[in-house]
Amino acid sequence: MEPHIDATPAPPLDAVPPPRPWSQPQPPTAHTTSTADRGSFCLAVCSCGWKGPARRSRDLARKDATGHAATGAT
What are phi and psi of 67, to 5 degrees? Predict the structure, then answer.
């Protein structure tokens, strides 16, 4: 078989750093809430991953975010 002359040679194994150990992300200590627009809807989102229901009223979405941050629920 003929070698591929257009192929890019792979670097030697000792030139590639070993993978970093996997670590699980730590949850944030405080709930940081904000609102996000999705088309004509607005929803409350939190740094813990929580999302409120989609609302047409930004004020209601802000109230959802405030309520979530006050209770500390996930």
Answer: -65, -40
64, with CB counted inside 10 A (0-12, 13-18, 19+), is buried
Provide the token pair at 71. Answer: 């209770």
Residue 44: phi and psi, rounded to 5, are -85, 140
Give the pLDDT confidence of 34-43 residue by residue, as tens digits: 999 999 999 9
pLDDT-derived band at 64 (thresholds 50, 70, 90) equals very high
> What length is written for the chain?
74
CA distances from 10 to 13, 18, 52, 69 (A): 9, 16, 48, 51
